[in-house]
Amino acid sequence: MTNSSTAEPLLEVRDLQVEFRTKAGTAQAVNGLNVTLHAGETLAILGESGSGKSVTAQAIMGILDMPPGHIAGGEIRYRGEDLLQMPDERRRRLRGMNISMIFQDALSSLNPVLPVGWQIGEMFRVHRGVKRREARQKAVEMMERVGIPAAEKRAGDFPHQFSGGMRQRIMIAMAIALDPDVLIADEPTTALDVTVQAQVMRLLKQLQEEFNMGLILITHDLGVVADVADKIAVMYAGRVMEASDVYSIYSSAAHPYTRGLLASIPRVDGADERLDAIPGLPPALTDMPPGCPFSPRCAFATDRCRTERPELREIAAGHTAACHYAEDFITAEEDQHEPA
Amino acid sequence: MSLPETTSAAAGRGEDPFADAEVVLDVQNLVKHFPLTQGIVFQRRVGAVQAVDDVSFQLRRGETLGIVGESGCGKSTLAKLLMRLEDPDAGAVSFRGEDFLAAKGEHLRRLRRKIQIIFQDPYTSLNPRMSVGDIIAEPFSLHPEEKPAQGVRNRVKELLALVGLNPDHINRYPHQFSGGQRQRIGIARGLALNPDVIICDEPVSALDVSVQAQVMNLLDDLQQQLGLSYIFIAHDLSVVRHIADRVGVMYLGRLAELGTEEEIYREPSHPYTQALLSAVPVPDPTLRGQREQIVLAGDPPNPADPPSGCRFRTRCWKATDICTTQEPQLVSRPGVSQLSACHHAAPDWEVEGAPDDARRNDDSA
């Protein structure tokens, strides 16, 4: 029935505003976020702690803690339908069936006192009304699909009996059990060792291709983004600072924050130069500077930056940045490169 | 069976700028096994987790030795052994020629001043009820003979300034600082007694990337200014490459490979190091699908029951019969400039006969 054309986005977030009411005042965790996701596409939302990336994921998934959280405005359209306006019952049905999520910490996301096979089977029992025996069979199938050896035998095991990488696979099995269109992965490999991280990212990519899912990858790791993402949105203090296809960000970042991030990470294939650290700290969300939120840490900030908040605007085809001087950074770079 | 090759391990026969510097820490054949017991009243010993097994290395003045490995490889236990927070089962550690493990009482206290540690989590390693001034001054009350001449408070202010914090914040409490600032407080405390060696156990893992760079630069500067030697323990290979002069790679309690940073990262000879390096994502999308990537199947084996012979052989694509029967020692091997604990050590990334899972694309060279 919902055989939509590929041009129609799966998910469209428009001007999303999320606030947290705290004793210290209202914290603007997400402030005017716009992103679009198509089927088969991987969108990376990159940011440091407190940038609002996980809150964005929770708002899309509908699992935001409310209160203290509060969606102050905007819309989240899934296949054209606003998730924020629909009745709770309908939204609950979409969650898990159509939009699904995996979390960073698999050990605390799984129920420690239930066998994993039962927990995966629950997806089928609750959403599809499948009987126990069949649900178990399907759970074993899912475990095989995500590469858990001896799945039949291990379906009766408890989460603590699995290694970190295997637990993350179980979470993935659960998340994709009902063939969702959209999968949100919140730091899926941050708690894992690098060799296991490679396994899990490869699995996610394979499954995405197989099911033609839209994948939203929430991460702080510029390396992982470079490996798997198609598009990227860089968040800082609740706002998108820069968004584009993944290649443009790495080759011609326009926002000083993005440029600073790229300069501050050591590379495994790189030389021993001194890192260009970004000085200072992100602003408190309850006490945002009036102008550009990055201006207190920005080496290029002018009076205009400190007073007038730059809007996210298009600076090249498919490349947006929220900086008054974005074009200058790009042209300066071209000047540097051309003579060579 | 003695291991003469290992004992003479100066490592890094290449261009090692610290080859002639004084050895501050000499670690020989260090072993730590944690017993596994069963039973409630009568505890029977049913085995042992071989957390650190036969680890040897030397640390020279002014250099940084990076120790990398995945969780459970024993790198944090190694840190505790070097601090004597745990007592090793066997082996020797000497600090500037003095036997650190045999030291007792006053002698031990004196040596302990010279080896300090910085922990991973700046949120739990600082007492929330003590002011920053008290935290940094605490080493002076434990070691009263080191009380600074200019007065403790002045020295604490000096230390705060040294790590880039405002000396006027001496009366603040840990919760008033961000993660990166707290890590600076931990570093200031570590520096209070003018140590020679600082053991950094995952010092930047809990920090955001932009702040991580600040702390790494600070550690660099302090080393230059004060001539410190670091043992830098981390799981992040990029961070270790950036900061270390020499690198040891650990797997299941043993050193798999030990050499200069250049040797380990340019010409890794142990299959585990090769797999580890190839798995690190590089922040450059144009290299996507171009880098050779070896994805290891499975998880590391149980350290309580490591495989016979080479501990990596169960996941290794080069493994042959000799790997099952003979445990490879960390020695220099033909064609390899660093020390390598692999029977088939070779600096090229031979993935022939690799499992199907190990894809390779040769374009990087």
Task: Give keywords.
heterodimer; A: 340 residues; eight-stranded mixed beta sheet; four-stranded antiparallel beta sheet; 12 strands; 36% helix; B: 365 residues; alpha/beta; Rossmann fold; 2 domains; 11 helices; 28% helix; globular; disordered N terminus
Helix-strand sequence of chain A: EEEHEEHEHHHHHEHEHEEHHHEEH
Count of extended strands of chain A: 12
Tell me the domain tally of chain B. 2
Query: What is the residue-averaged pLDDT of chain A?
Result: 87
What order do the strands of the largest sheet of chain A run in, or round the barrel if closed? 6-7-8-3-9-10-12-11
What is the CATH homology-level superfamily of the largest domain in chain B? P-loop containing nucleotide triphosphate hydrolases
**Gyration radius over CA of chain B:** 22 Å
Helix content of chain B: 25-40%
Radius of gyration of chain A: 21 Å
First-last Cα distance of chain B: 42 Å
Oligomer: heterodimer
Q: Give a short account of the largest sheet of chain B.
A: 8 strands, mixed
Q: Which geometry of chain B do the CA atoms define? A: globular
Largest interface: A-B, 46 and 42 residues
Strand tally of chain B: 12
Shape of chain A: globular
